[in-house]
Amino acid sequence: MPLLVTPAIPTGALAASDQPTLPLGDGAWLRPWRLDDAEAVREAFQDPEIQRWHVRRADTVNEAREWIEGWQSGWHSETGGHWAVAGSENGGLLGRVSLKSLNLADGTAEVAYWTVPAARGGGVCTRAVTTLSDWALKHRGFHRLELEHSTANRASCRVAAKAGFEAEGVRRGAALHMDGWHDMHLHARVRTLP
Question: pTM of the predicted model, to two decimals?
Answer without folding.
Answer: 0.94
